[in-house]
């Protein structure tokens, strides 16, 4: 599968987002770099991400249904790198120097300058081996950055087009 070139996204969610939406001071933000992300349906608009069972994002999205996706650009490789680190305890410091806006529908951080951002509500979770397929309804979609190419992952390395 390392021969399948993939775009790179940052999946984000806020702990306690369902209860605390509107109170931006409560709940920690979590982020996870992912390539197993795809469009599933146009009507209704559904997307899917595959999360490793037991990862912090999987645990969080098991508890609450709201999440965000930022499609990373070629200039955001450092963001992909830091949110893929294993054994992190907290993501608070990781978000500190990243410009982001909070999604209006989910409270999830959406990276400024991303090629596209989505906000989603989980409709279905399908356990598949050691991962869980999380299918989400797209609540909002935006294209914050008109410029720049995609960040691509191919044969174990980040790449750019061209
Ligand atoms: C390029 C790249 C793509 C990744 N794609 C996924 C993915 O689609 N799903 C997933 O569960 N983990 C994926 N990971 C691994 C997670 O980013 C990583 O396991 C997680 O951030 C570490 O947190 P954890 O200790 O809670 O698992 C990917 C890592 C990299 C470097």
From TrEMBL:
Residue span(s) of domain Flavin reductase like: 1-160
Pfam families: Flavin_Reduct
Name of the protein in its database record: NADH-dependent flavin reductase
Keyword Oxidoreductase (UniProt): yes
EC number: 1.5.1.36
Gene: nphA2
Domain of life: Bacteria
Cited SUPFAM superfamilies: FMN-binding split barrel
Gene source species: Streptomyces smaragdinus
GO BP, one annotated term: pyrimidine nucleobase catabolic process
UniProt xrefs under InterPro entries: Flavin_Rdtase-like_dom, NADH-dep_flavin_reductase, Split_barrel_FMN-bd
Keyword Oxidoreductase (UniProt): yes
Xref: PANTHER family: FLAVIN REDUCTASE (PTHR30466), FMN REDUCTASE (NADH) RUTF (PTHR30466:SF1)
Keywords: Oxidoreductase
Gene Ontology molecular function terms on file: flavin reductase (NADH) activity; FMN binding; riboflavin reductase (NADPH) activity
Family annotation (Gene3D superfamilies): Electron Transport, Fmn-binding Protein, Chain A
